[in-house]
Amino acid sequence: MKTIGTFAETRALVSGRIGLVPTMGFLHEGHVSLIEHARSMCDTLVASLYVNPTQFDESTDFDRYPRDLDRDSAIAAAAGVDILFAPDDEEMYPTPLLTQVHVPALADRMEGVHRSGHFAGVATVVAKLLAGIKPDVALFGRKDAQQLAVVTTMAADLSFPVDIVGGSIVRERDGLALSSRNIFIEDRTAALTLHVGLMAAADAFEQGVIDGAELESVVVDSLGDVELEYVELADARTTERLVTLDRPAFIAIAARIGGVRLIDNVYFTGTPLVADRGNRLGAESMLYDEGDS
Ligand code: AMP
Protein backbone atom coordinates (compact mmCIF):
# COMPACT_ATOMS: atom_id res chain seq x y z
CA MET A 1 0.00 0.00 0.00
CA LYS A 2 1.15 3.51 -0.80
CA THR A 3 0.16 6.58 1.20
CA ILE A 4 -0.25 9.56 -1.11
CA GLY A 5 -1.14 13.19 -0.50
CA THR A 6 -2.13 14.52 -3.92
CA PHE A 7 -4.87 13.88 -6.46
CA ALA A 8 -2.39 14.00 -9.35
CA GLU A 9 -0.10 11.34 -7.90
CA THR A 10 -3.09 9.14 -7.04
CA ARG A 11 -4.47 9.38 -10.59
CA ALA A 12 -1.05 8.52 -12.01
CA LEU A 13 -0.96 5.27 -10.03
CA VAL A 14 -4.44 3.83 -10.48
CA SER A 15 -5.48 1.49 -13.29
CA GLY A 16 -8.41 -0.71 -14.29
CA ARG A 17 -11.65 -0.41 -12.36
CA ILE A 18 -11.12 2.01 -9.49
CA GLY A 19 -12.88 1.73 -6.15
CA LEU A 20 -13.04 4.50 -3.53
CA VAL A 21 -13.92 4.33 0.17
CA PRO A 22 -13.99 7.85 1.66
CA THR A 23 -13.32 8.04 5.42
CA MET A 24 -12.31 10.47 8.12
CA GLY A 25 -9.94 7.90 9.58
CA PHE A 26 -9.56 6.32 13.01
CA LEU A 27 -10.63 3.21 11.18
CA HIS A 28 -12.78 0.46 12.66
CA GLU A 29 -14.56 -2.65 11.43
CA GLY A 30 -17.32 -0.54 9.78
CA HIS A 31 -14.72 1.01 7.49
CA VAL A 32 -13.03 -2.37 7.00
CA SER A 33 -16.30 -3.96 5.84
CA LEU A 34 -16.66 -1.24 3.18
CA ILE A 35 -13.03 -1.72 2.14
CA GLU A 36 -13.46 -5.49 1.85
CA HIS A 37 -16.68 -5.09 -0.11
CA ALA A 38 -14.99 -2.57 -2.43
CA ARG A 39 -11.97 -4.86 -2.86
CA SER A 40 -14.19 -7.46 -4.53
CA MET A 41 -15.52 -4.87 -7.00
CA CYS A 42 -12.41 -3.18 -8.36
CA ASP A 43 -8.79 -3.51 -9.54
CA THR A 44 -7.32 -0.52 -7.72
CA LEU A 45 -8.73 0.31 -4.31
CA VAL A 46 -8.30 3.80 -2.92
CA ALA A 47 -9.34 4.69 0.62
CA SER A 48 -9.31 8.37 1.47
CA LEU A 49 -8.54 9.71 4.89
CA TYR A 50 -9.39 13.32 5.55
CA VAL A 51 -11.05 14.97 8.53
CA ASN A 52 -12.99 17.48 6.48
CA PRO A 53 -13.33 20.75 8.41
CA THR A 54 -16.22 22.08 6.30
CA GLN A 55 -18.64 19.39 7.46
CA PHE A 56 -18.20 20.08 11.19
CA ASP A 57 -20.60 22.54 12.75
CA GLU A 58 -18.89 22.39 16.16
CA SER A 59 -15.20 23.28 16.33
CA THR A 60 -14.75 21.23 19.53
CA ASP A 61 -16.00 18.12 17.69
CA PHE A 62 -13.52 18.80 14.86
CA ASP A 63 -10.64 19.48 17.24
CA ARG A 64 -11.10 16.33 19.27
CA TYR A 65 -11.92 14.01 16.35
CA PRO A 66 -9.43 11.10 16.79
CA ARG A 67 -6.52 11.05 14.34
CA ASP A 68 -3.79 8.41 14.02
CA LEU A 69 -2.21 7.96 10.58
CA ASP A 70 0.11 5.11 11.56
CA ARG A 71 -2.74 3.11 13.06
CA ASP A 72 -4.98 3.78 10.03
CA SER A 73 -2.22 2.87 7.56
CA ALA A 74 -1.72 -0.53 9.19
CA ILE A 75 -5.47 -1.27 9.21
CA ALA A 76 -6.01 -0.08 5.63
CA ALA A 77 -3.05 -2.10 4.30
CA ALA A 78 -4.22 -5.26 6.08
CA ALA A 79 -7.75 -4.78 4.69
CA GLY A 80 -6.49 -4.66 1.09
CA VAL A 81 -6.24 -0.95 0.25
CA ASP A 82 -3.80 -0.15 -2.58
CA ILE A 83 -3.63 3.60 -2.11
CA LEU A 84 -4.35 5.53 1.06
CA PHE A 85 -5.15 9.03 -0.16
CA ALA A 86 -4.36 11.25 2.83
CA PRO A 87 -4.37 14.85 1.60
CA ASP A 88 -3.64 17.92 3.71
CA ASP A 89 -5.84 21.03 3.78
CA GLU A 90 -3.65 22.66 1.14
CA GLU A 91 -4.42 19.86 -1.34
CA MET A 92 -8.15 19.81 -0.58
CA TYR A 93 -8.72 23.54 -0.26
CA PRO A 94 -5.79 25.33 -1.94
CA THR A 95 -7.84 28.49 -2.34
CA PRO A 96 -10.84 29.74 -0.35
CA LEU A 97 -13.81 27.60 -1.33
CA LEU A 98 -16.21 29.66 -3.44
CA THR A 99 -18.22 26.74 -4.81
CA GLN A 100 -20.57 24.60 -2.75
CA VAL A 101 -22.57 21.54 -3.66
CA HIS A 102 -25.88 21.42 -1.84
CA VAL A 103 -28.80 19.02 -2.13
CA PRO A 104 -31.34 20.95 -0.07
CA ALA A 105 -34.37 18.71 -0.61
CA LEU A 106 -32.55 15.77 0.97
CA ALA A 107 -30.18 17.58 3.29
CA ASP A 108 -32.35 20.12 5.09
CA ARG A 109 -34.05 17.64 7.43
CA MET A 110 -32.92 15.35 10.28
CA GLU A 111 -29.10 15.80 10.42
CA GLY A 112 -29.41 19.02 8.42
CA VAL A 113 -31.70 20.57 11.04
CA HIS A 114 -29.29 19.78 13.87
CA ARG A 115 -25.96 20.22 12.07
CA SER A 116 -26.16 23.41 10.06
CA GLY A 117 -24.13 23.24 6.84
CA HIS A 118 -23.05 19.65 7.48
CA PHE A 119 -24.29 18.15 4.22
CA ALA A 120 -23.06 21.01 2.07
CA GLY A 121 -19.62 20.20 3.49
CA VAL A 122 -20.10 16.49 2.84
CA ALA A 123 -21.54 16.82 -0.67
CA THR A 124 -18.81 19.27 -1.66
CA VAL A 125 -15.90 17.20 -0.36
CA VAL A 126 -17.33 14.00 -1.89
CA ALA A 127 -17.77 15.80 -5.23
CA LYS A 128 -14.11 16.87 -5.00
CA LEU A 129 -13.04 13.26 -4.27
CA LEU A 130 -15.11 11.93 -7.18
CA ALA A 131 -13.71 14.58 -9.53
CA GLY A 132 -10.14 14.24 -8.32
CA ILE A 133 -9.85 10.45 -8.13
CA LYS A 134 -12.42 9.45 -10.77
CA PRO A 135 -13.52 6.16 -9.19
CA ASP A 136 -15.85 3.75 -11.01
CA VAL A 137 -17.44 2.72 -7.74
CA ALA A 138 -17.59 4.47 -4.36
CA LEU A 139 -18.81 2.89 -1.14
CA PHE A 140 -20.64 4.53 1.75
CA GLY A 141 -22.08 3.04 4.93
CA ARG A 142 -25.76 2.82 5.76
CA LYS A 143 -24.66 4.00 9.22
CA ASP A 144 -24.97 7.47 7.68
CA ALA A 145 -28.17 6.70 5.78
CA GLN A 146 -29.07 10.32 5.02
CA GLN A 147 -25.52 10.94 3.79
CA LEU A 148 -25.83 7.90 1.50
CA ALA A 149 -29.03 9.38 0.01
CA VAL A 150 -27.46 12.84 -0.40
CA VAL A 151 -24.32 11.46 -2.07
CA THR A 152 -26.30 9.14 -4.37
CA THR A 153 -28.49 12.02 -5.56
CA MET A 154 -25.57 14.44 -5.89
CA ALA A 155 -23.54 11.99 -8.01
CA ALA A 156 -26.52 11.30 -10.30
CA ASP A 157 -27.53 14.96 -10.62
CA LEU A 158 -23.97 16.04 -11.49
CA SER A 159 -23.45 13.09 -13.90
CA PHE A 160 -20.46 11.64 -12.10
CA PRO A 161 -19.81 8.32 -13.91
CA VAL A 162 -19.68 6.37 -10.66
CA ASP A 163 -21.76 3.67 -8.97
CA ILE A 164 -22.57 4.60 -5.38
CA VAL A 165 -22.89 1.46 -3.26
CA GLY A 166 -24.13 1.24 0.35
CA GLY A 167 -22.86 -1.18 3.00
CA SER A 168 -24.68 -2.51 6.09
CA ILE A 169 -23.99 -1.11 9.54
CA VAL A 170 -21.34 -2.94 11.54
CA ARG A 171 -22.15 -3.05 15.26
CA GLU A 172 -20.04 -3.71 18.30
CA ARG A 173 -20.72 -7.01 20.03
CA ASP A 174 -23.22 -5.33 22.38
CA GLY A 175 -25.09 -3.81 19.42
CA LEU A 176 -23.77 -0.22 19.51
CA ALA A 177 -23.18 0.99 15.93
CA LEU A 178 -19.45 1.41 15.39
CA SER A 179 -18.28 5.00 15.24
CA SER A 180 -14.86 6.53 15.73
CA ARG A 181 -16.55 8.68 18.42
CA ASN A 182 -17.45 5.59 20.52
CA ILE A 183 -14.09 5.88 22.31
CA PHE A 184 -15.50 8.99 24.06
CA ILE A 185 -18.70 7.36 25.40
CA GLU A 186 -18.95 7.23 29.17
CA ASP A 187 -22.55 6.11 29.75
CA ARG A 188 -22.57 3.00 27.60
CA THR A 189 -25.86 1.77 29.08
CA ALA A 190 -27.63 4.89 27.86
CA ALA A 191 -25.88 4.75 24.47
CA LEU A 192 -27.04 1.18 23.92
CA THR A 193 -30.70 2.16 24.20
CA LEU A 194 -30.53 3.74 20.72
CA HIS A 195 -29.82 0.35 19.24
CA VAL A 196 -32.35 -1.36 21.52
CA GLY A 197 -35.08 1.03 20.36
CA LEU A 198 -34.29 0.56 16.68
CA MET A 199 -34.30 -3.22 17.01
CA ALA A 200 -37.65 -3.03 18.83
CA ALA A 201 -39.02 -1.04 15.88
CA ALA A 202 -37.65 -3.68 13.48
CA ASP A 203 -39.41 -6.34 15.59
CA ALA A 204 -42.65 -4.33 15.47
CA PHE A 205 -42.37 -4.02 11.67
CA GLU A 206 -41.88 -7.77 11.39
CA GLN A 207 -45.04 -8.23 13.47
CA GLY A 208 -46.98 -6.11 10.97
CA VAL A 209 -46.68 -2.52 12.22
CA ILE A 210 -46.15 -0.15 9.26
CA ASP A 211 -47.46 3.10 10.74
CA GLY A 212 -44.58 5.58 10.84
CA ALA A 213 -45.63 7.39 14.03
CA GLU A 214 -46.12 4.08 15.83
CA LEU A 215 -42.71 2.77 14.75
CA GLU A 216 -41.07 6.03 15.83
CA SER A 217 -42.72 5.84 19.25
CA VAL A 218 -41.49 2.27 19.71
CA VAL A 219 -37.94 3.67 19.41
CA VAL A 220 -38.61 6.60 21.74
CA ASP A 221 -40.20 4.36 24.39
CA SER A 222 -37.02 2.25 24.61
CA LEU A 223 -34.64 5.15 25.19
CA GLY A 224 -32.77 5.58 28.45
CA ASP A 225 -30.94 8.65 29.72
CA VAL A 226 -30.25 10.33 26.39
CA GLU A 227 -30.90 13.79 25.00
CA LEU A 228 -32.97 12.96 21.91
CA GLU A 229 -32.60 15.14 18.81
CA TYR A 230 -34.89 13.25 16.44
CA VAL A 231 -36.38 9.89 15.53
CA GLU A 232 -37.76 9.74 12.00
CA LEU A 233 -38.99 7.19 9.49
CA ALA A 234 -37.55 8.46 6.21
CA ASP A 235 -37.72 7.42 2.55
CA ALA A 236 -34.33 5.85 1.77
CA ARG A 237 -34.03 7.70 -1.55
CA THR A 238 -35.63 11.11 -0.91
CA THR A 239 -35.22 11.24 2.93
CA GLU A 240 -38.82 12.54 3.15
CA ARG A 241 -40.65 11.63 6.32
CA LEU A 242 -42.94 8.66 5.69
CA VAL A 243 -46.39 8.15 7.16
CA THR A 244 -46.27 4.44 6.27
CA LEU A 245 -43.36 2.04 5.91
CA ASP A 246 -44.28 0.81 2.44
CA ARG A 247 -41.05 1.41 0.45
CA PRO A 248 -37.27 1.33 1.05
CA ALA A 249 -36.75 3.47 4.14
CA PHE A 250 -34.84 3.88 7.36
CA ILE A 251 -35.73 4.84 10.91
CA ALA A 252 -33.01 7.23 11.98
CA ILE A 253 -32.15 8.48 15.43
CA ALA A 254 -29.74 11.11 16.73
CA ALA A 255 -29.09 11.70 20.41
CA ARG A 256 -26.50 13.07 22.78
CA ILE A 257 -25.17 10.92 25.57
CA GLY A 258 -23.07 13.06 27.86
CA GLY A 259 -20.98 15.13 25.46
CA VAL A 260 -21.10 12.58 22.65
CA ARG A 261 -23.52 12.86 19.75
CA LEU A 262 -24.48 9.50 18.21
CA ILE A 263 -26.55 8.54 15.18
CA ASP A 264 -27.92 5.14 14.25
CA ASN A 265 -30.69 3.67 12.13
CA VAL A 266 -32.39 0.53 10.96
CA TYR A 267 -32.72 0.26 7.19
CA PHE A 268 -35.59 -1.47 5.37
CA THR A 269 -34.90 -2.69 1.86
CA GLY A 270 -35.72 -5.43 -0.68
CA THR A 271 -38.97 -6.88 -1.98
CA PRO A 272 -40.67 -7.65 0.30
CA LEU A 273 -39.10 -5.15 2.67
CA VAL A 274 -36.70 -6.68 5.17
CA ALA A 275 -35.02 -4.96 8.11
CA ASP A 276 -31.23 -4.66 7.78
CA ARG A 277 -30.27 -4.72 11.46
CA GLY A 278 -26.55 -4.61 10.66
CA ASN A 279 -23.82 -7.11 11.51
CA ARG A 280 -22.52 -7.57 15.03
CA LEU A 281 -18.88 -8.23 15.79
CA GLY A 282 -18.08 -11.42 17.66
CA ALA A 283 -15.30 -9.80 19.68
CA GLU A 284 -14.27 -6.43 21.02
CA SER A 285 -13.72 -3.81 18.32
CA MET A 286 -10.25 -2.75 17.19
CA LEU A 287 -11.27 0.73 18.41
CA TYR A 288 -10.25 -0.34 21.90
CA ASP A 289 -6.99 -2.10 21.01
CA GLU A 290 -4.33 -1.10 23.49
CA GLY A 291 -2.14 1.78 22.47
CA ASP A 292 -4.55 2.83 19.74
CA SER A 293 -6.61 5.45 21.47
P1 AMP B 1 -16.48 8.27 8.68
O1 AMP B 1 -15.02 7.96 8.77
O2 AMP B 1 -17.19 8.18 10.00
O3 AMP B 1 -16.78 9.52 7.90
O4 AMP B 1 -17.11 7.08 7.83
C1 AMP B 1 -16.61 6.76 6.57
C2 AMP B 1 -17.56 5.79 5.91
O5 AMP B 1 -17.71 4.64 6.73
C3 AMP B 1 -18.97 6.38 5.73
O6 AMP B 1 -19.49 5.98 4.47
C4 AMP B 1 -19.73 5.79 6.87
O7 AMP B 1 -21.11 5.67 6.64
C5 AMP B 1 -19.08 4.42 6.98
N1 AMP B 1 -19.26 3.89 8.34
C6 AMP B 1 -18.96 4.49 9.51
N2 AMP B 1 -19.33 3.71 10.54
C7 AMP B 1 -19.87 2.58 10.01
C8 AMP B 1 -20.45 1.41 10.56
N3 AMP B 1 -20.53 1.22 11.86
N4 AMP B 1 -20.89 0.47 9.69
C9 AMP B 1 -20.82 0.65 8.35
N5 AMP B 1 -20.29 1.74 7.77
C10 AMP B 1 -19.83 2.70 8.59
Total helices: the number is 11
CATH class of the largest domain: Alpha Beta
Strand order of the largest sheet: 1-4-3-2-5-6
- Main β-sheet, in a few words? 6 strands, parallel
Bin the strand percentage. 15-25%
CATH topology tier name of the largest domain: Rossmann fold
The tally of domains stands at 2
Output the structural class.
alpha/beta
What is the mean pLDDT?
Answer: 97
Poorly predicted regions are none
Which word captures the global form? globular
**What is the H/E order?**
EHEHEHHEHHHHEHEEHHEEEEE
The name of the CATH architecture of the largest domain is: 3-Layer(aba) Sandwich
Count of DSSP E strands?
Answer: 12
Helix content percent band: 25-40%
List the ions, cofactors and other small molecules found in this model.
adenosine monophosphate
Q: For this structure, what is the CATH homologous superfamily of the largest domain? A: HUPs
- What Rg, in angstroms, do the CA atoms define? 18 Å
